[in-house]
Amino acid sequence: MKFIAGISSATALFCLLAWTDPEAARAFVPSTTTKTSSSSSSVASSSSFGLARRRGHQRRSTSLDAEAIKITMPALSSTMKEGRVVTWLKSEGDAIEAGEAIMVVESDKADMDVEAFEDGYLAKILTREGETAEVGSVVALVAALEGDIASIAEGGGDDAAPPAAAIVAEAGPAAGVGAPDVEFSQLDMPALSSTMKEGKVVSWLKSEGDAVGAGEAIMVVESDKADMDVEAFEDGFIAAIITGEGEAAAVGSPVALIASNEADIPALKAYAATLAGGGGGGGGGAAPAPVSALASPVVAAKAPPKATAAPAASAGGRVVASPLAKTMAADMGIDISTVVGTGPDGRITAADVQNAALSPAAPAAAKKGAAAAPKVPSWTPAAGVIAATPTARALAKKAKLDLSTIVGTGEFGRVTADDVKMATGEIKPKKKSVALGAPAPVELPEGLVPFTGMQRAVSNNMEKTLDCPVFRASREIEMDAFNELYQQVKPKGVTVSALLAKAVAKALEKHPIVNSSYRKEGTFFNKDINIAMAVAIDGGLITPVLKNANERGVLDLGEDWKGLVDKAKAGTLKPDEYNSGTFTISNMGMFGISQFDAILPSGQGGILAVAGTQEYIVPCKQAVLGMKKISKMTVTLTCDHRQIYGADAALFLKTFSEIMMSPKSLV
Amino acid sequence: MRFFLASLALVASSSSPSATAFVVPSSSSSSSIAAAAKIATTSLDASKCGNYDYDVIIIGCGVGGHGAALHSRSQELSTAIFSGNDVGGTCVNRGCVPSKALLAASGRVREMRATEHLGEFGIKVEGEVTYDREGVARHAKQLANRVKGNLEGSLVALGVDIIEGRGILVGGGAGAGEVHEVKDATSGKVYTAKDIILAPGSIPFVPPGVTVDEKTVYTSDGALELQSVPQWVAIIGSGYIGLEFSDVYTALGSEVTFIEALPNIMPTFDREIAKQAERLLIRDRPIDYRTGVFASEVTPGIPGVKPVTIKMIDAKTKEHVETLEVDAAMVATGRVPNTANMGLESAGIETSRGFVAVDPQMRVMTKHGDEGVVIPNLYCIGDANGKMMLAHAASAQGISAIENICGRSHTVNHDAIPAACFTHPEIAMVGPTEEQAIERAAKEGWTLGKSQGSFRANSKALAELEGNGMAKVLYNKESGKVVAVHIIGIHAADLIQECANAVAAGTTVQELSMMVHTHPTLCEVLDEAFKGAVGMSAH
């Protein structure tokens, strides 16, 4: 195990030893500070690590004339108070290199090599072999230049009174911004291993404003060797966190300020802002408001509520309960004194106990309709119980949320980690997950989604159709001939939709009644055969119209149809292009639907629901096996029965069937 | 065998020859050589071991009794074992073995759900990792049954007679000497043996005020059945058992609150290790804890209807401090000897909190303290003597007892018995804690040395992306002998054996530092520590 003696130049005022305790992974931050009461000691503001307790107004800077580097006694273990120099591996005058072992120190746990941090020359040994020195006290002086050895050796002879010559500019960060005049200490990034240059704060175990006790772990720092807990050295309050979680700080630079008094936190926060700027100096302009020493400490107004035993025991009175109630209460683990009795003279009955078990919060309310009691009653925690899981509590504390303001979705209504995260907005609300270990539930949409304009129009139109008396007629149509034709004309660009529209239009020519509209006064025959076809588009349903479908060729219709569908999808159909239909086709054949019927759009006389084509085996005398395979499709016509009758529909379907079975006429 | 028959006369019991009511003359001393002619009381072949049915009868068929039985047979002693209908005992049926199954299954769930960690390997798990609680529980049950079967098979194969009932000592009495008779509590039949080993084991301790229903409030017995995976479970006690179950529960998705009566969490562990464990096994997990409090009143709940209520009082002031309402509570507050109703009192043996006093040779003493008198042919091993409540310690003690029965004086070095806690990562140790070692060194006048190896500097650990942990070696600076080793880190339980062997053999750190460790293995963590102790550097 090797340790580096931290050596800093005199300009850094106070030199401290990088300390590490790899054996003790608990990384106890040693007190490496000066005694503020001692007027002669120099107190650093920036280079100290550990909790450098300082009084701002007592800060004073002194230094040595020459570029002297001090070597101090390192804390080699958490319990080490002083160390004995076993051996000096270097003599006065020797050159030393960074990383070179210069002495062996015996701690309470083991002997360890102490290495130098910087190059230089060993000028003066203050603590000789066999002597002991307090942790943090100077054991040797190192000259940066060989020529300075003599002067440093002379001057540094008495560390207790170092020559107070050159007053060095405040080494504190953001020169000019002094620390507030309050009692506080600074927590610096400790050196957790000999090779550690900077450390990453993995997590803060305390938040700003939290009280910390000496020896309590306050943060976890990641070094190259291990993650280590850093403990507080003194009692106090975390005033400001300078290095946030996940951020790194150079060894020795401040990561947090710890106030002795809670009231000083705001002042230190402001001061911390100047430190946080660090060398960058960005921002940090705001001078910290000097804090009056008289500022009365805020007395914790919120004394922790002494949770009294949960259910208020019935005052003094003897519990009168039936034996069964008592046994049942004992079995259920219910304190019978909390149960409200409804029996004679308020005696507790078995039913009361059952009710209490079901809804302990309101046993009186539950007594009436025991049978109607909800199966999974809501649970009201007993007084003083914090109904939150450990993680929820920790998260709420961190987010400074009051748990009582969060609605719990966990067992017995307790607040879970997710509930807190939802309250902080970290996660979006989602459905409570089912039993642990069960497959993830499907995220189903929930709640009201307002209609779009199109959806509103569709629903209005559908409601209007309720006034119309309709009937339906279905017919199976052999499709082999049609399919054969379709395969022939498909290469030319003819579509099924166009063929269907054309076939329907041709049939309507022969049965104009089916193309008619109902009027109060009588049947209104439409001059044109305009075939509307339903198209499902994103967010609704629309019926583009192929006008005069009976008179146009299928290629023309197909092209027209393509354009209409594109327009429908783009939402650019003109009203005339979707509300001028005289007859509608709804085709769901492509979805494999075997049969369905459609709702008749108001204003039209009929709508044809076209289902999918299916194959059947039918008897056939000509066939070798006495049977053959045919394709059939079922169409269902819905008609307004006010002017169109069943026979009309039947005849129309017969014609339509004939056209479909000899479709040559379509092309 | 012959030796024993010959020596029988010297240590033979002063038992009366009554076949049914075995009355022992109170005047007789344990050194009596008045060998009463004893008539065989059973149909078993008495001739093969003189006047007794068996050379050795073992009461209790856990790992301790099993270890004793195996060694007894290897010494060609005729042997019977009372199983009390519990072949395998706690370890196999309700302890170490099934808990390892739960830890193995839950550990995989934890690993596969650690997407960030897997990502560092370049592994991605698509979709949610799920488990079937019943399947996990079944794995534990099947493992226990299998191990139990193996254990029983080995006894039968070696010619050990298994008597199914619970064994009860018969005879003895105030100030009496030897005890030779054991009654089968089930059949009432009495068997005799020259030497008797008590290995009744232990049962979970349930503190006063705690009502156990084994459904919502349960001991390890109930927990191992994994009847539910509660959203929030309180574990009372933060020892090995509690810690292992917190590992299982959090891996399966529960949150855990530890309730510890002592001022520190994990009080039985080395402090330094406990602090690391707190960071690795508690703080980064959905676990919190209360220390210095008793769970003074624990009331079972009804799932979905009523939570488990736990009232906590300050351990010192006894004032109520907090009430928790949780889904389940596990009581892991230690174990107490299973020594009631086995005839100890009538045999003149006083127990202390159920523990049977034994001398270093595992011979039963009539009472704890200086006034206790050794009963020369009666031994007690395992949890019942409280020396070290571990399965393998019991087995070692059983073997030791047989050695002593064979006339080769033997004592178990408990300092060399390793122990492990099978959390992820594991904790393992041999020898005293550092705190105890410091005290011991001061008392015995030697200097304690300490050296450490870290997992983060270990290639294999880094390859596994499991760099957390440490191994510390405590040794006697003067002699160089290893005093204790404490490890927390991946596979710590497998690493400790080398150290246990070193402690047992008195190997020095100087010797260990020159022994070659395989590269790249986790053993190099120890290599680093051994070398560090003598001022050498490891890779």
TrEMBL record, chain A:
Domain Lipoyl-binding: 68-143, 184-259
Cofactor dependence: (R)-lipoate
UniProt KW keywords: Acyltransferase, Lipoyl, Signal, Transferase, Transit peptide
Domain of life from the UniProt record: Eukaryota
Pfam families per record: 2-oxoacid_dh, Biotin_lipoyl, E3_binding
UniProt cross-references to Gene3D superfamilies, sorted A to Z: 2.40.50.100, Chloramphenicol acetyltransferase-like domain, E3-binding domain
Signal peptide start-end: 1-27
Biased composition (Low complexity): 32-48
Family: Belongs to the 2-oxoacid dehydrogenase family.
Identification of the protein by name: Dihydrolipoamide acetyltransferase component of pyruvate dehydrogenase complex
UniProtKB/TrEMBL annotation, chain B:
UniProt keyword list: Disulfide bond, FAD, Flavoprotein, NAD, Nucleotide-binding, Oxidoreductase, Redox-active center, Signal
GO molecular-function terms, A-Z: oxidoreductase activity
Residues reported to bind FAD: K100, G167, D383, M389, L390, A391, H392
Enzyme active site: H519
Cystine pairings recorded for this chain: C91-C96
Matches recorded under InterPro entries: Class-I_Pyr_Nuc-Dis_Oxidored, FAD/NAD-bd_sf, FAD/NAD-binding_dom, FAD/NAD-linked_Rdtase_dimer_sf, Pyr_nuc-diS_OxRdtase, Pyr_nucl-diS_OxRdtase_dimer, Pyr_OxRdtase_I_AS
Binding note for cofactor: Binds 1 FAD per subunit.
Family to which this protein belongs: Belongs to the class-I pyridine nucleotide-disulfide oxidoreductase family.
Protein name: Dihydrolipoyl dehydrogenase
Organism in which the protein naturally occurs: Cyclostephanos tholiformis
